[in-house]
Amino acid sequence: MPGSPHNFGITVFDTDETTRKADVQVTIRNESTNESKSLNTSSTGRVIFQLANASVFASGWTAGDRISYFVLYQGFEAKESILVRDTGGTTVTLTLVSITVAPSLKLFNVQEFLDTFNISVYDEDNKNGIKPQVIVMVGQSIEKEIEDLTNRTWDDNGGDNYTVTTEYHDAARYQDIWFTDKTPCTEITNFEVNSQAEGDAASWTDIKAEDDEDLNINLARGRIGLTSGASQLPEPGIDQVRITYKHGQSTPANV
Questions:
Q1: Residue 254 pLDDT more than 70?
Q2: Are residues 170 and 137 in the same domain?
C-alpha cells in the first residue's frame, strides 16, 4: 500500500567484500515514479531509507514497486534493483567494483565533476543525469588540451608512467644552453651533440653518458647547459642537438 511503513536498509562493502564503507553516498530510486533519494552510510557502512517518509519518495511507494539502489564512489560503483514487498522491511548489500571506464582521469574524478556542476548520474536521474563514461571521455579531451597548451604531462600513477621524449634542437654558433620543450623533467637520459656540419653524415656524442659533470641541468625548467667549453659544442645548424628525457608531474595540476 502507498505510504505504509517500510525500512529499506543497505550496507556497502569495499571491493574485498568484507570492509564496510562509511560516509559513502547511496541513492535509491523508485522506478515507478522516477523519484530518488540519496543518503550517506554511517560508520558501520549502513544506511536506512524510510520509504513511508515523504522526504524519500514524495509520491510514496506501493508493494511490487522496483527499487534501484546504487553507489558511485571515487572510481568505484555498485548498483542493483529489487521488487519491494509489503513485509515491513528490506535488507540488501552493495559491493564496490571498479568502474569499467579506462584510462582513468588524472586531474579530477567523476564525483568532483558531479559536485561542481550539481549534476546527477544517469542511474539517479534518467531524464537529466549524465553517465560516468561520458564525463571520463570529455575529461580526457580537456586534460589533453591542458597538457598541450602548457607543454606538461601529468602522470597518474605515482610517477610510473612518466613520458619519454626524444627531441632535436637547432644549434647557433657558440650556443651552450638548451631548453626541453616539455617540463618539468624528471630525468635527462641522453644529451647528444653532432660534431659534423649540417648536411654531412652525423656523428653523435652522448655527453650525458661520457661525463655527467660537463652538464649543468635544471630539471624543473628543462634547462641543459654545457660547461666543458668549446671542445664539445655542436656544429651550428638544424637538428644538431638530440635530447632524450622523461617528463611529467606525479601530482595533479591545480586547475
A1: no
A2: no
98, 113, 142 - which closes a domain: 98
CATH of the domain at 5: 2.60.40.1120
**pLDDT given for residue 101 in this prediction:** 45
- The C-alpha atoms of residue 224 and residue 217 are separated, in whole angstroms, by 5
pTM for the full model? 0.46
Sign of CA dihedral 16, 20, 21, 25: positive
65-85, pLDDT tens digit by residue?
Answer: 889 898 887 767 788 888 888
- Residue with the three cell numbers 602522470: 155
Position 79 in a domain: yes
Indicate whether 191 belongs to any domain: yes
Residue 158 lies in a domain: no
Of 115, 42, 39, nearest in space to 70 by CA: 39
In the three-class reduction of DSSP (H, G, I as helix; E, B as strand; rest coil), residue 102 is classed as: coil
Task: List phi, psi (to 5°) of 183.
Answer: -140, 160
- Report whether pLDDT(102) > 50: no
Q: Is 63 helix (H, G, I), strand (E, B) or coil?
A: coil
Same domain for 199 and 118? no
Q: Which domain holds residue 177?
A: 163-247
Please provide the average confidence, as pLDDT, over all residues in the chain.
Answer: 85
Interior/surface letters 14-50, b for 16+ CB within 10 angstroms, e for the rest: eeeeeebbeebbbbbbbeeeeebbeeebeeebbbebe
171 & 139 share domain: no
* pLDDT digits 0-9 by tens, 123-178: 777 788 888 778 878 888 888 888 777 777 766 555 566 778 899 999 999 999 99
Contact indicator for 9, 82 with CB cutoff of 8 Å: no
Do 194 and 223 fall into the same domain? yes
